[in-house]
Amino acid sequence: MKSLFTGSPGDAVLPHPLPGDQWPPDPRCVFANRVRDSQNEQYVPSNLLKYQRFIEWSPREPFFKSPTRESLESMHRTGDTSMTNTPKTLGNSTLRVGRIGLGCMGMSEFYGGTHDEADHIKTLHAAVDLGVNFFDTADIYGLGHNEELVSKAFSDRWDKVIVATKFGVRRGADGEWLDVCGRPEYVKEACEKSLKRLGVETIDLYYQHRPDPNVRVEESVGAMKELVAQGKVRFIGLSEFSAEQIHAAHAVHPITALQTEYSLWTRDVEEGILEACRELGIALVAYAPLGRGFLTGAIPNRASLDATDWRRDNPRFSDEALAENARFVELIRDIAARKGATEAQVALAWGLAQGEDVFTIPGTRRIERLEENLGAWKVRFTAEELVEIRSRLPRETSGSRY
Questions:
Q1: Using an 8 Å Cβ cutoff, are 332 and 297 in contact?
Q2: Which of 111, 141, 207, 287 is an active site residue?
Q3: Is 324's pLDDT higher than 80?
Q4: Partner of 354 at 20 to 30 A CA spacing, among 41, 179, 281, 370?
Q5: Beta strands 134-136 and 102-103: pairing type?
Q6: Where are the beta strands (DSSP E) in 269-376?
Q7: pTM of the predicted model, to two decimals?
């Protein structure tokens, strides 16, 4: 079997062997700071090369198989970083987190099905055992239940985890959506409530969930800056802010991370926002890196969604949009077959390959899916493959994000 994409094997970046192949032939293949083939160099986006480092690879490396929980735990304990979630510094902070985290929202609501708190806590504990230390929640998830769930799960292991939460979107007592609020007094009020639900004295990373159209960014971030000075928040972040808003916020206080949707079918962030983040040293935390489950191939139609699943009301999950967007799954499935990986692992690996400043927080309630996601670390792409993937991606995604 030949490699998936054309290109010079000697110029490979993020090498990965295919079954029956001795590819690439040069075992010294490394992360390069440029593509040596001048014919291809002009096609490689600079952001794919800026953050790459040297890595050794042997043609005798076995063909990839999804790791077991036991093997992941063993490598985490022994410090084997070849396929584990090695902590990296998160943007403008001292936080060290794995680039595959865990989004906790679905453990409280939105994705239908049953919610067994005991099972969810087992999954959270398993995540820590497997080397995941970055967990994402928000005050609106389950009307505060999600923060309380995280508190119960980590009450005896706060020293092993970094938890990010958010404020700014308000809901009524029955869960109805009210508005977005970034008023300074509300920022402080929301923080106090989150501290109480989490059962901590300081929040590791505090995001403004959405910008308030009626309040200047500088005012909201100014209130967050005060929370840092008071020791109630360690670092601050933003979610779904424009490049202009990011610059305005960063001028008030250093921003650690921007959280926004980023995946193979949602790449809007590449139109100026990612550049702004890199200019300011801000990490990108990608939520929904699996396209809310669609990119895994598990949602062929709306009938496969639970009756209470909010995706039934999402424009991208209409029957028409799902049929149109099936092109993304076809591409991912083709790559997965050739890489000997799952669709989820390919989708996550693509996100991780966009730069070491890109962190992902795929959500799951199941331990087996958590293990599968961590297997993304064994999926490797060459620079040529990354360029080829982009050339094969559909130009547009059918349906708006919300």
A1: yes
A2: 141
A3: yes
A4: 370
A5: parallel
A6: 283-287, 358-360
A7: 0.80
